[in-house]
Amino acid sequence: MSFLYPSVFWFGLPLVALPLVIHLLNLRRQRRVPWAAMQFLLESQERSKTWISLQELLLLLLRTAAIALLIVMLARPTARSGWIGRLLNRPVHHLVVLDDSYSTTDRWAETSAWKEGIGAANDIAQAAADQSTASVVSILRFSEAEQGGEDPRPGIFRQQLDDKSRQEFISRMETAQPTDTASGLLPALRRAVELADLQPPDQDLVVHVVSDFRQHDVQQIDAIQEVVDSLKKRSTGLQFIRTVRQPHENLALVSLEPESGVRATGVEMWMRLAVENYGTSTAREVVVELEQDGSPLVSVPVGDIPAGETVDRRFRATFVAGGAHWVAGSIDADAVELDNRYVYATHVPEAQKVLLVDGSPNGWESYYVGTALAPGGPVKSGWAPVVVKASDFAEAGDLSQYAAVALLDVPRLKDEQLAQVAAFVEAGGGLLVTLGETIRRDYYAGTGFASGEGLFPAPPDLPTQWIPETDDTENPAADIRVTDHPAFSVFRGERNSMLGLMRVNYYYSLQRGWRNDKTDDVEAIASLADGTPLVLEKPYGNGKVVMQLTKVSPDEGTLGSWSNFGPNPAFVVLTNELFGYLAYGAAADDVLTVGDALRIPADRAMFAGSGSIQRVGRGTPYQATLSGDPAADQLVIASEPIERAGLYRVRLDRNSGGTEDRFAAVNPAAGEGNLALAADTTLRQKFAGDEFALRYADELSTEANPSESSWTEVLLASLVLALVAEQALAYVCSFHE
After folding, report:
1. Which of the two residues, 576 and 35, has the higher pLDDT score?
2. Which residue stretches, if any, does this entry annotate as coiled coil (predicted)?
3. What's the domain count of the chain?
4. Which CATH number does the domain housing residue 506 bear?
């Protein structure tokens, strides 16, 4: 047995002899004086002397025991071995479920939520090591719970805690760091239930959930309550240990990305950033400092941000040279450092290639679209149209090399071609489809639409002539109405008059009753003046499909001219905006969220399907290999999930030898930096029960540990019994009236 305060024990140990000393001193006060009248009394006392001596001896022992119990209780024993400890305690498995999401980097004064959590884990381990029986400790981190896998056991599982291993455990915990993930409470509790099912029947389980318990952690509180109830049934105790007492102000740079548009060497583009205020007061005069490829770019004044709101700002950027580039923004330090920086990375080509598949008889569709995208001359548009006839579609090669694909009045696609285009869009590419006289309506309405499950947004019916309600040749009304869509943003305000120059003569109406539960995401982004759909959009996988129900060229067919779009000045603007919108998804693969795997579509003719990735700059070093599936239809070079935010250099191996460098940006998930706390009353009301307790981490070190408290209760009860027995025996012995 050891003591929390051994000096008290050794100082008080001599006091145990105090009753005996007092008894001996009292004996010296007694004198034998002969007295004839007392002879009878002495003879009577002699007959009961044995019983009286026994009573006095018991009284002396009770007084000695009372002092001994008081001293031992004040010294606070912590038994590690012995038969008394084995009687008082069963073996205990302490399962610590530790929050290591990046909200635990919340810092104040000289500490942080993570430091408080580590301190709580160490206090639990210290208390477990002081128990009278062999106890074990497991540490389940939130991030481990979200990694999945067949084996639910964490890295620290059922570790014995003798003197040596306890110090190793504490040293290991002191060097541990929080992750950059937004790992949640619910997956961690579910993994804890799996570990509880592995518990031996002859051992108690006590679960300690150490977290900051933010509001976003308990959004699924009903589901959490179900899991907590399961844990209560499988354990002898459950406590929530809170590492934060109050929320702190925090700003986060939640996005930094280009707006839709061409992304090419030497072409200026607009970018947008957003800052969110997670605090409870207005943030004043916020400024975002930008850098491009390691050099300062500009400072963007954001201004005041009210509590709970997000403010975005635009800025211009130009990449002078082709290749790998990055742009990063940062704001001033606050409670959480990780979300003060956001990185955007891209691979900028000399020009973005777009594939124009032309099915029109004379090739006029691709002529007008291609001319609008790349008119030639001194002005660089940034687009590089590649034109193939519909019959020569196979010559297009791997579609991953294109930013967008356009099917211009294509009669139909072969099954393998349709699958290839669908895979391209699903991976993030954009597809434009225009309908003219040469299309096979039965194909588009059947295989292409597939009752809403196909690639095309809607089933075309018959070519229909558009006849405006009024015919004012001097001031004609616009045939087209557009929605508030990124592709038509240039036509807002005064520029909306440009749409009045664009005329429609024929278009495809849609089959009646085509809407169903699988077409809820299909939207008409442009329509004729009477509301009839003219341009439809459908999300497909990670990409999008835009279908225009009329031709582009004014070339006259059997019905005459379908539209005047091609030679119209407004068409040049519209085409560039539309392809910029379609190409946006295909060019955004270099920006990831922590926990995502990097996936880079690549051309088999150029790349070997292997490479490496390495973290750039300060922070935790990271280096890994990349690989692709050689059997896949489309080559995608991928990494394992990346768990740390930052800028990464990617090197892709070329078939011809050498490598191509790119950058990848990994940013923390937005929302985890919201430091608003779930109320204590909410947690207590939801999880109340005999097996549940809610404590704060800074209270654990001042509380009695479990093994010590069990001894204290026993000693206190014994002391009370000893004092009561002493008083009763003293009364019987006539020492009290």
Report:
1. 576
2. none
3. 5
4. 3.40.50.880
Q: What is the pLDDT of residue 635?
A: 81
555 occurs within a structural domain = yes
CA-to-CA separations, 259 to 170, 287, 303, 499, 585, in angstroms, rounded: 49, 20, 21, 22, 11
Is residue 168 domain-shared with residue 311, that is, in the same domain?
A: no
Question: Which domain-ending residue is among 587, 612, 641?
Answer: 587
Whether 649 and 616 map to the same domain: the answer is yes
In degrees and rounded to multiples of 5, residue 193 shows phi and psi of: -65, -40
CATH number at residue 337: 2.60.40.10
Its pTM stands at 0.77
pLDDT tens per residue across span 344-374? 999 898 999 999 999 999 999 999 999 999 9
Residues 102 and 37 placed together within one structural domain of the fold: no
Number of H helices, E strands in the chain: 17, 34
* DSSP letter for each residue of 415-445: HHHHHHHHHHHHTT-EEEEE--TTS-HHHII
> Do residues 298 and 382 both lie within one domain?
no
Which pLDDT score is estimated for 707? 47
Q: Which of 651, 607, 609, 606 is nearest to 630 (CA)?
A: 609
Q: In what order do the strands lie in the sheet with 352-358?
A: 383-389, 352-358, 404-408, 430-434, 543-548, 533-540, 523-528, 480-482
For the cut 60, the answer to whether the pLDDT of residue 737 exceeds it is no
Contact 538, 521 (CB under 8 A): yes
Per-residue CA distances from 651 to 69, 607, 645 (Å): 72, 11, 18
**Does 333 reside within a domain?**
yes
Give the model's pLDDT for residue 735.
56
Give the pLDDT confidence of 153-208 residue by residue, as tens digits: 898 888 887 777 888 888 889 999 999 999 999 999 999 999 999 999 888 899 99
- Helices 39-47, 49-75: inter-axial angle, 10-degree rounding: 60
Looking at the fold, whether 367 and 505 belong to one and the same domain comes out as yes
- C-alpha–C-alpha distance, residues 77 and 6, integer Å: 9
User: Is the Cβ–Cβ distance between 290 and 281 less than 8 Å?
Assistant: no
Q: Helix, strand, coil: what percent of the chain each, to 5?
A: 35, 30, 35
Residue pair 225/201 in contact (Cβ under 8 Å)? The answer is no
Q: Are residues 404 and 439 in the same domain?
A: yes
Q: Which residues contact 55 (CB under 8 A, 6 or more apart)?
A: 729, 732, 733
Which of 349, 382, 415 corresponds to the end of one domain? 349
Planar angle of CA 559, 562, 568, nearest 5 degrees: 150
- H/E segment holding residue 405: strand 404-408
Angle, alpha carbons 497-501-502 (nearest 5°):
115
Residue 536 CB neighbour total at 10 angstroms: 22
What the block records as the tokens of 38 is: 């007392």
Bridge-based pairing of strands 692-696 and 237-242 is: parallel
Structure tokens at 618: 């300060």
In a domain, 403, yes or no: yes
Q: Could you tell me the CATH number of the domain that includes residue 171?
A: 3.40.50.410
Do 661 and 694 have their domain in common? no
pLDDT at 307 over 90: yes
What is the Cα–Cα distance from 180 to 193, expressed in whole angstroms?
A: 25
pLDDT in tens, 111-144: 999 999 999 999 888 887 776 567 889 999 999 9
The residues, ordered by sequence, that sit 6+ positions from 77 with a Cβ below 8 Å of its Cβ are 1, 2, 3, 4, 708, 711, 715
Domain membership flag for residue 405: yes
Can you give the residue range of the structural domain that contains 169? Answer: 83-248+675-703
- The predicted-structure confidence for 322-332, as pLDDT tens digits, reads as follows 999 999 999 99
Per-residue pLDDT, 88: 45
Residue 582 and residue 596 in one domain: no
| Residue 85 binned pLDDT confidence (cut-offs 50, 70, 90) | very low
Cα–Cα dist 345/326, whole Å: 4
CB burial string 449-487: b at 16+ within 10 A, e below: beebebbbbbbbeebeebeeeeeeeeeeebbbbbeebeb
